[in-house]
Specification:
One of its GO terms (molecular function) is tRNA binding. Dual-specificity methyltransferase that catalyzes the formation of 5-methyluridine at position 54 (m5U54) in all tRNAs, and that of position 341 (m5U341) in tmRNA (transfer-mRNA). Keywords: Methyltransferase, S-adenosyl-L-methionine, Transferase, tRNA processing. This is tRNA/tmRNA (uracil-C(5))-methyltransferase. The chain has 359 residues and is α/β, with parallel strands linked by helices. It folds into two domains: 207 residues, Vaccinia Virus protein VP39 (Rossmann fold); 117 residues, Beta Barrel (OB fold (Dihydrolipoamide Acetyltransferase, E2P)). Helices cover 29% and strands 30% of the residues. It contains ten helices and 17 strands. It has an eight-stranded mixed β-sheet, with helices on both faces. The longest helix is centred in the first third of the chain and has 16 residues. The protein is globular and about 65 Å long.
């Protein structure tokens, strides 16, 4: 794959800033702080299909909406150095028919800390012979390796990658499970965490967090408040978050497996939840709420819930749905800080953040 030309990057980033300013203009937002990304080797995750041409097979990707015209790859400059180093070595390994037979997809998960997890997906059952061969490959590459076929999952090593991020002078360690959501651009993720911790500031009250995932933001934000109540619906993410709390020695976070909508019902006393047994919701002194919702943004009821708090810290992967949520909040809260995080260079996607305070 040809090397990326860095010259258009500044212009593209300026266009993203202008688009964000236009979306936030109705809310009298200050000028956004802009956090740029390296132009290459920023993506810690990558997924490839395998494409056969004659006797050869290649890593392949497809343009959006086209599943029939492969883009054949020998390397992938936007992916991490670790992924690019592993791609040819793994390709050599699938020449072994035990590894390569009916292999159709490869997924890489790497970290800034240098860890790597590879998932191999097959259109055939996996057996003991595959396990033996896969153990050799994992040892040779220095990675954990997972084999997936219909109804079967074999783990060689760990089923997660280990990350370490520096936030406000402290190092936080994270388990990032295979198949669970993790931030794809680790450098930008670290910048987002530092920005979020800075703008929240030191508080003597409590924080509510919705959509907490594996605790990516939860851990550093917990150092700025008295207590945190964090919610997440994905079981694998909850398990990873619990391991991350223990691994970092953090004891002021209570984690519950509820959706944002369910927690809204619980706080509104619409109905009780057994998963909240033993948790005194009325004992919290919430001053701030942190949200990092999916692309659809917050639903109207959850958005209405956030209105109760003095401060709303909102990280968004979709500026259009962020703007829709801000329209609902604008009469009670004003934007005092905002930022653009260029998580996905060379695309139209962007991550943004706003801090809102009660008017």
């Amino acid at each position: 794959m040809p090397q990326l030309d860095p010259t258009p990057y500044a212009a593209q980033l300026a266009e993203k800033k202008a688009r964000l300013q236009t979306l936030l203009a109705p809310f009298d937002a200050p000028e956004p702080e802009v956090f740029d990304s390296p132009g290459e080797h920023y993506r810690l995750r990558a997924e490839f299909r395998l494409w056969r041409e004659g006797e050869d097979r290649h890593y392949a990707m497809f343009a959006a909406g086209d599943k029939h015209t492969p883009i054949l790859l020998e390397d992938f400059p936007v992916a991490s150095q670790r992924i690019n180093e592993l791609m040819p070595r793994l390709k050599a390994a699938w020449a072994d028919p035990v590894i390569g037979f009916k292999l159709f997809q490869v997924e890489f998960l790497t970290t800034l800390a240098g860890d790597a997890l590879i998932t191999l997906c097959y259109h055939r059952p996996l057996d003991d012979a595959w396990r033996v061969a896969a153990e050799r490959v994992a040892a040779a590459l220095g990675v954990s390796l997972i084999g997936r076929s219909r109804g079967k999952r074999i783990v060689i090593g760990k089923d997660y990658a280990e990350e370490e991020l520096l936030v406000a002078g402290r190092r936080f360690r994270y388990r990032q499970p295979e198949g669970a959501f993790t931030q794809p651009n680790g450098i930008i993720c670290q910048k987002m965490l530092n920005w979020a911790v800075e703008v929240l500031g030191e508080r003597d009250d409590d924080l509510l967090e919705l959509y907490c995932g594996n605790g990516n933001f939860t851990l550093p934000l917990s150092t700025r408040v008295r207590k945190v109540l964090a919610t997440e619906i994905s079981k694998s993410s909850v398990n990873a978050a619990l391991a991350n709390l223990e691994g970092n020695g953090i004891d002021n976070i209570e984690l519950v497996r509820l959706s944002a909508e369910e927690l809204t019902q619980a706080l509104n006393e619409v109905r009780p939840f057994r998963r909240l047994a033993g948790i005194d919701l009325k004992g919290y002194q919430f001053g701030s709420v942190f949200v990092d919702p999916p692309r659809a943004g917050m639903d109207p009821d959850t958005c209405e819930l956030t209105r109760r708090f003095e401060r709303i810290l909102y990280i968004s992967c979709n500026p259009e749905t962020l703007a829709a949520n801000l329209a609902q909040l604008n009469d009670t809260h004003k934007i005092v800080r905002c930022a653009l995080f260029d998580q996905f260079p060379w695309t139209h996607h962007m991550e943004s953040g706003v801090l809102l305070e009660r008017r």
